[in-house]
Amino acid sequence: MKGSLFSSEHMVQPATAPGMTIENAKCVKYTVNGEMLARQGAMVAYRGNLQFERKGQGVGGMLKRAVTGEGLPLMAVRGQGEAWFAHEAQNCFIVEVDPGDEFTVNGRNVLCFDASLSYRIATVKGAGIAGGGLFNSVFTGQGRLGLVCEGNPLVIPVSAQFPVYVDTDAVVGWTAGLQTSLHRSQSIGSMLRGGSGEAVQLMLQGEGYVVVRPSEATPQKAQQH
Predict the structure, then answer these.
(1) DSSP string, 138-207
(2) Exposed e or buried b for every residue in 159-187, given b needs 16+ CB within 10 A?
(3) Residue 216, pLDDT score
(4) Is pTM beyond 0.85 here?
(5) Spatial contact of 163 and 204, defined as CB atoms under 8 Å apart
């Protein structure tokens, strides 16, 4: 076969080592030799001897997802082979977590990760259900974490002198060492009169980085179907 479709730009390359790599801007390849984890439904292709199994989150995690709508439904991938993961053609990125690191990320942005990473659901301090149910996924340990993001994310440094205020629908995640709280940028009276539409933000203070997607609207499935 000939044509631009079959050029090296689109042709997958042989695996050189186990683990996670960026296949292209919209897809992550994972060369499995043992076990890894991914969000349910994210696998778009695979080859080799692989088994896919839905992974439970435990009673506590299931209750939190039921109450807040947040969480991370996972599947375990085991065996030897290659698998490709993507989500709605969103851009893909890899974060390397080292011992002592802690990366907090919105569950909707998680694509796949090494089984060596530990994962838990945590409440964003100062938010809770009254603040929109800001439950996020916290990753620790050592390994790689694959993320998806609508568009190209902004990585904004946070310092003690310069806290950062982020729309709660736009935040992707943040590094350890940051403290969070809700910040109201206008009065109740201003909101009742129309306001700016930017009433509450997530304030991050300390030393680290916050990752923001270039969209503040929560993704919605098409309603016409």
Answers:
(1) EEEESEEEEEEESSPPEEEEE-SSS-EEEETTTEEEEETTEEEEEEE-S-HHHHHTT--S--EEEEEEES
(2) eeeebbebbbebbbbbbeebebebeeeee
(3) 64
(4) no
(5) yes
